[in-house]
């Protein structure tokens, strides 16, 4: 079984007794500490609720794909599937792209905020580690951009830090496809439109986390894995398609580097150490979510 959305995946994890629901953990370090300690021991996925300063139902999910069993589930395989068998499933098949299908609406459009209503602090974004540079809303998410030359849609996973109610910073490692796309816009003297999806379905997220070749859209790869097209909605602000079944989608644009930069990082990596220091990074202005 392949999951249409994150919620159905979490429901299945709960049925398998592989989801821990926690109430009352604070967004400042407590959620991060619990998640890190459990991940080190290949523990369950977590769903945090009743987070201080936020209404019930404003939830945070962590440790979704930190075990072989949950990765197997994400790809529609039995939980007991061996690691090598998971790899073979991904490698030993003839890839045939399955284009996404555009729909007019979906669950992600139930609540829409634009302009003055934009406020990134509306979400209970954690400070995960003691020396993090800020609150990181972008960890288990996808960042989507359109190549200005070829028009293809790329999705990647890059960390996203909150600066204020409508300003974020994204760190993208050199050579990553979204960074190449971003530089193309800047070379033209333009800002770069971008969409971020928080809480995508498992296959779409893992497609973005994998190294899909340049020119191949992660949407097409996810459709191939699913054996049916993913459903997308054309963004009102950017025109970039995003997943109709996502939990939260943010539309905005990277500002040209000559306009503004802000300090970003550091962030404690999954390897259990800090890979870099605080540095000036590009700014992303949020237009709507």
Shape: globular
**What is the total number of structural domains?**
2
Q: Give a short account of the largest sheet.
A: 9 strands, antiparallel
Q: What is the annotated CATH architecture of the largest domain?
A: Roll
N- and C-termini, Cα separation: 30 Å
What is the CATH topology classification name of the largest domain? Pnp Oxidase, Chain A
Low-confidence stretches: none
Count of DSSP helices? Answer: 7
- Radius of gyration, taken over Cα atoms and rounded to an integer in Å: 18 Å
Derived from helix and strand composition plus strand pairing, the structural class reads alpha+beta
Measured by DSSP, the beta-strand proportion falls in 25-35%
CATH superfamily of the largest domain: Electron Transport, Fmn-binding Protein, Chain A
* Rounded average pLDDT: 95
CATH class type of the largest domain = Mainly Beta
Helix and strand sequence: HEHEEHHEEEEEEHEHHEEEEE
Total number of beta strands: 15
């Amino acid at each position: 079984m392949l999951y249409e959305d994150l919620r159905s995946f979490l429901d299945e994890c709960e049925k398998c007794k592989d989801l821990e629901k926690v109430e009352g953990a604070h967004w400042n370090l407590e959620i991060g500490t619990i998640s890190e300690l459990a991940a080190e021991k290949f523990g369950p996925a977590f769903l945090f609720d009743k987070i201080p300063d936020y209404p019930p139902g404003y939830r945070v999910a962590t440790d979704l794909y930190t075990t072989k069993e949950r990765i197997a589930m994400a790809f529609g395989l039995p939980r007991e599937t061996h690691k090598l068998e998971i790899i073979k499933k991904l490698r030993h098949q003839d890839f045939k792209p399955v284009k996404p299908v555009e729909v007019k609406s979906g669950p992600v459009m139930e609540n829409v905020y634009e302009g003055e209503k934009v406020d990134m602090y509306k979400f209970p974004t954690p400070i995960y580690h003691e020396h993090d540079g800020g609150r990181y809303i972008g960890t288990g998410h996808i960042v989507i951009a359109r190549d200005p030359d070829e028009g293809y849609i790329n999705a990647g996973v890059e960390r996203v830090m909150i600066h204020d109610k409508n300003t974020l910073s994204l760190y993208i490692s050199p050579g990553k496809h979204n960074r190449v796309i971003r530089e193309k816009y800047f070379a033209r003297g333009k800002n770069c439109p971008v969409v971020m999806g928080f809480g995508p379905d498992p296959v779409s997220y893992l497609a973005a986390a994998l190294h899909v070749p340049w020119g191949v859209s992660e949407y097409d790869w996810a459709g191939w894995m699913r054996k049916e097209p993913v459903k997308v909605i054309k963004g009102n602000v950017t025109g970039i398609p995003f997943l109709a079944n996502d939990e939260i989608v943010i539309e905005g644009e990277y500002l040209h580097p000559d306009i503004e930069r802000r300090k970003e990082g550091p962030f404690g990596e999954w390897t259990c150490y800090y890979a870099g220091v605080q540095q000036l990074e590009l700014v992303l202005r949020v237009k709507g979510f």
